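Morning. Coffee machine broken again, so started the prediction first thing and wrote up yesterday's gels while waiting. Chain of 283 residues, entered below exactly as on the submission form.
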Amino acid sequence: MENGTLRDSPPKIWVSIKKGEADQQEFSFADSFSIGRDEDCEIQVKDSSVSRVHAEVYFHEGRWWIRDLNSANGTLVDGKKIDRLPLLRSTRIELGIEGPMLEFELKEDTGSITIPSKKDPSITHYVKQYFSDSSGKDAGEHTMYIRKAFERVQKKQKGKYSIIIGAAAVLLLIAGTVVVVQHTKLQKQKQIAIDLFYDMKKLELEIAQLKERVNVGANASRLAEMSENYDRFIDNLGVYTRKMTQEDRMILKMASIFLIICLIVFIFVKVCINGPVPAKISP
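Came back before lunch.
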């Protein structure tokens, strides 16, 4: 393609292993690929200084790029660690200090403006790669391990959430039961208080009516008056004689008082049963 023209697909990139042990020494790619010690990597480099997934090469904005994937020993160009670097016609990189060395070559000039065939890999890219719902027939051992670990974490989290939700439901049920019981007790106590109030008012009314029927003070003064009249009546009859001792007089007087009390009780009972006798109104 000429410079300034648009390109539907990225140009091929050639990779050769200059230093390090690999199953083959020459590779060519027209799509993104990974480099690392894991067998799922498109370029597997068998060296202890290389991380399982060490770096990634991808096409973005008309250029091939190499990006370090947080490797333990880093990705170096000319002895300097890089995070991300565009790959020009010929670039050599090291996987760790004095580690395996790879050379990247492009057959075409990638300096022109092009339409990228593939976006910069993002979180969505890795989610689809490692956590998709595919059967796993085409997935490597590394991907399958990640999927199994993720499933195990999901099961543990679901178990914890189920316990938390169950405990919250039990606490909510207990709280609701306590509220209902307390409300029922409060209603019962309220009804008892109302009944007790009316009973007290009824009792007060009955006491007032009883006081109205039986005037204790009037009956006491009446009793004293009757006793005095009775004494005068006995004196007029001459019941007390000079020969009677003071003790005999006392006994006779007590007997008289007892008779008067019996008469008053009789009158009181009669009044309670039949009601007070209305007084006669003089014309």
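The first strand starts at residue 13 and ends at 19. Going to sketch it on the whiteboard this afternoon.
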